[in-house]
Amino acid sequence: MKQKLLVTGGAGFIGSNFIRYVQNVSPQTEIINLDLLTYAGSLENLSNLPHPSNHQFIAGNICDQTLIEQTLQENNINTIVHFAAESHVDRSLEGPSAFIETNIVGTFSLLEAARKVWLVEKLFPLNDVLFHHISTDEVYGTLGPNDPAFQETTPYAPNSPYAASKASSDHLVRSYNHSFGLPITISNCSNNYGPYQFPEKLIPLMILNALTGKPLPIYGDGMQIRDWLYVEDHCEAIWTIIQNGSVGESYNIGGGNQPPNIEIVKKICGILDERDLPNTPHEKLITYVKDRPGHDRRYAMNIEKIHQELGWEPKHDLANGLRDTVDWYLDNTDWLNAIIKEKDYQQWVEINYQQRGRA
Ligand code: NAD
Ligand code: TYD
Prior knowledge:
binds thymidine-5'-diphosphate
């Protein structure tokens, strides 16, 4: 049966990349994109879709169960791809309540809407529906230097309010499969980078600050490790799971790129130095600042399951992915300026960085 997608959070970083990816690989797929347009979401992220007529935007909150039910019914949605979330760890330390509301209550309301429309009203045969939940490696907690990478069977041990809210939503999704038979899949992915990422996260923040001659704030000793994945690879993995994944299963997704933060920032500086820009050498902007409380030291994903079962592996290596990302931001300064002007960006920078000072 033809898939008709409800994408939640499709005006955010990964959601908008996913919509563009699906329109490229499956132009006929119809997509309804429901997004609240919080500070992190923008219609600018959707400005140049390849097939705009197959994308419909609805401004709405995933916590509004009635709206979700209507959206599923009126549009004959048989596949939900759930990205919408509060996604920034530092913001979850400043104000956790939005994370509880959107990530936990919002996911619950989506699940309830799906249960009602798909399981009670039986809008479609059960084999034709799927709720795919997008989650993070942060649910597994932190690794020591010699620990093996996270597997799907690694016990959850979330350390930040963000990670705890995502862990909670994962458990709810799993339980709706186990208790009610809702067809679900879950993917837990490592840190993404690439075009359209809001410049509060490490890589776009460093590019923006370097371009404007501002300090490049490294938390703590800069030796924390993330498993970086180019966003298009994540989108491909999600699409692969939606097409061929086993119902009820979780899949870990990662990039196999695990240099410490300071090396990532130095690589970005090196790429910028090769362009004819002011503030060269950019490394002189690097500034060590007070660490994030409870900062997870290391993440790494074991991707054997998705590789063995579904044949997925990342296509982009870090060197090329970072180069493409830096060039995308250099070529899209209009987007960047619109994003940082439109939202509460300056306010967030003040809240998060002023109190950190230098380390
Ligand atoms: P993002 O912050 O860029 O985008 C989130 C989107 O959700 C925004 O468009 C926002 O407007 C929307 N949204 C927020 N609250 C909403 C609500 N109540 N109702 C409807 N829409 C709402 O996030 P992202 O980086 O694109 O992450 C997307 C998903 O992927 C999240 O679930 C996140 O936990 C997960 N994830 C992200 C990463 C990463 O590195 N960015 C890695 C692994 C998993
Ligand atoms: P971030 O992009 O916020 O993702 P996450 O916290 O989900 O991993 O941060 C990536 C890493 O970079 C993390 O170890 C924190 C660090 N970091 C800095 O050192 N300085 C910064 O200004 C930011 C935003 C992050």
